[in-house]
Design goal:
The chain is mainly β. Helices cover 9% and strands 43% of the residues. It has one domain: predicted glycosyltransferase like domains (Thrombin, subunit H, Beta Barrel), CATH 2.40.10.220. A six-stranded antiparallel beta barrel has the order 1-2-3-6-5-4. The longest helix has 10 residues.
Length: 111
């Protein structure tokens, strides 16, 4: 019997490989003195969140405002940074409080 690690999928939503431009900014808090903005690209997308490749502007727990850019429509959402891989210039976020029409727009972007 081969030895190795068993990988179990923990995600609740299906993810799709989509490469959309994303403009994002760190939501100011009482501890921030400047507004940090950056641009990156989605690497995979679900109705629950997205993996972003781009400049790291925050740490896990920070909130960003992100705009996913598609040729025929844009989608803006607030999200919490869940993890950061600075060496790969990637981070993952979970979307916060999506309304039904937001979820529908995301599902269209995932097609």
């Amino acid at each position: 019997m081969a030895k190795g690690k068993l990988y179990l999928e923990k995600r609740k939503q299906k993810r799709v490989e989509k490469n959309y431009e994303i403009n994002y900014m760190l939501v100011p808090t009482e501890f921030t003195t400047q507004i940090k903005r950056a641009m990156g690209f989605s690497k995979d997308l679900s109705t629950g969140g997205v993996r972003v490749e781009g400049d790291i502007i925050g740490k896990p727990g920070d909130i960003i405002k992100a705009e996913l850019i598609k040729p025929d429509a844009n989608f803006t959402v607030f999200a919490e940074i869940k993890w950061v891989k600075a060496s790969e210039r990637q981070f993952g976020v979970a979307f916060l409080s999506l309304k039904a029409h937001d979820e529908e727009a995301l599902e269209e972007m995932m097609e």
